[in-house]
Each structure stands twice: as structure tokens, then as C-alpha cells.
Amino acid sequence: MITAKEKTLDIKDYKLLPEGAPYQLIEGELIMTPAPGPLHQMISANLFKKLSKFIDEKGIGIVLYSPVDVYLGEKNAYQPDIAFISKEETEIIKEDGIYGAPDLIIEILSPSTAYYDIKKKYRVYERHGVKEYWLVDPEMRGVEVFLLNDKGEFSLSLKVYEKGTIKSTVLRGFEFSIDEIFKI
């Protein structure tokens, strides 16, 4: 992971990068994020297929996968692995990215980005009102689901490792066995 710490950057600086540049802007710091590995991508594909099918059948919104920029304030431009935006919130989707908090964000942990997903991005997602946040841990074969509570803070709603069922609160009726996302 390479960082640029010479000055605090903002969205205007971030938009000067060439399209496809492997960076995220995290609290004003430009962070290089290497391409994910094959296991990460297989897990992401499994999750996206399940989510996409459910969302399309219900007609309840849009699911997008990385790379797509999610802008949260002036100092954060993230590329979450998967983001769901409800039909009621689709106005946050613009030509050059998502401007505001998706309803659900899924981040798949990688050795080079786990710290940011668990600490910094977690707090920014919380602060900007992401309703549900999933952390997927390929190494431990687990998923932790956090829900935004009435105080505007995330609380752990569900923790499934190795065996069990993952359920979403934001996507009522969406549930599946954890084995389905870790099948290779």
C-alpha cells in the first residue's frame, strides 16, 4: 500500500487522476489499492450474482460492483466491492459516480486494505448513513453485518463464520448459506 501524505486532498484532486487509477481517497489521503486477487474476485462474483438476482426479481433498486466511485463528503472517494442503492435513493447515482451513502455496502477484506475497511472506511460509512455494512473475511470464511442504529452508529447485527445463514435487514427476505459465497 502506497500513500500520498504531502497534503490533505479532496474530491477535486481525486478527479484529476486518470480513469482507472488504482486509488481511493480516504479521509483526504490518497491510498493506492492493488488489484484484488482471484479468491477475492470469486467471492465478489458469488455475492454479486446472489444480490443481483434478488434485487432484479424484487425490482427494489440497483446493485453495483467495483470499480465505481462512491463520494462521501469532500475528502472520501471509495470503491466498495459491492453497493446497493434502493429505488428511493437512485438520485444519488450520477454519470461519474455515487454521491451519497448507498443503503448497503459490502467490503471483502484483503491484506492490503483490511485496515481501511475495518477502521477508517467503517467510520466514514457510519458517519454518512450507510444503513448496512458487511465485512467479508475470506481468510476466516466469515461475514460480519453491521446495522446503523437510531444513534447513527453501527452495531454488530450478525456474525457468521464457517457455517450458518447470512441475512440482510435492509434487503428483507435476502438470506443464504455462507457456503454459497465461499464456493470456488
Protein described:
By secondary structure, the protein is an alpha+beta fold. It has one domain (34-182): tt1808, chain A. 24% of the residues lie in helices and 33% in strands. It contains four helices and 15 strands. The strands form four sheets. Strands 4-7-10-11-12-13 form a six-stranded mixed beta sheet, sandwiched between helices. A four-stranded mixed beta sheet has the order 6-5-9-8, with no helix packed on it. The model has no long low-confidence stretch (mean pLDDT 92).
Task: Map the helices and strands.
Layout: E1 3-4, H1 11-14, E2 23-26, E3 29-32, H2 38-58, E4 61-65, E5 70-71, E6 77-78, E7 82-86, E8 93-94, E9 97-99, E10 104-108, H3 114-128, E11 132-137, E12 142-148, E13 154-161, E14 165-167, E15 175-177, H4 179-182
Parallel strand pairs: 5-9, 10-11
Antiparallel strand pairs: 1-3, 2-3, 4-7, 5-6, 7-10, 8-9, 11-12, 12-13, 14-15
Would you summarize the structure shown here?
The chain is an alpha+beta fold and 184 residues long.
